[in-house]
Amino acid sequence: MSRTPSGDADASGRRDPEDPGDESHAGPPDVNGTALAAVVLAVGNVVFGSFLGLFLPAVPAIFALASVLLGHLALARINRTGQAGRGLALTALAVGYLWLVLITLLICGMLLFTGYGFALLGF
């Protein structure tokens, strides 16, 4: 059986099974790596952040800020390149912002309802 350079069928009309030729079977679109990293960081913060926050209180806040930053970067890249992963980036943003709100409420509650908070506020 003779092969043609472009992968077209030979004279008998058969194709070489090892040569894909001009078949353009596209696989799934590439997922944006930044979006994947953002959602892994955000979900990891949900799973491990409250435990790590007992020992290092700034860790959940830093992870939440990092997931929000990576989520915004991923959305910008996805809009520019057309990659997949928009849902991952939006999930990372939602979880990251939710954590930031919860941390802010926790800090405000600690300042308002503890002796240290009362001393700072002058009560």
Automatic annotation (TrEMBL):
Stretches assigned to the DUF4190 domain: 35-106
Domain of life per record: Bacteria
Coiled-coil residues: none
Compositionally biased intervals (Basic and acidic residues): 11-25
Annotated keywords: Membrane, Transmembrane, Transmembrane helix
Region (Disordered): 1-30
InterPro entries according to UniProt: DUF4190
Chain ranges passing through the membrane: 51-75, 87-113
Protein name: DUF4190 domain-containing protein
Taxonomic source organism: Dietzia cercidiphylli
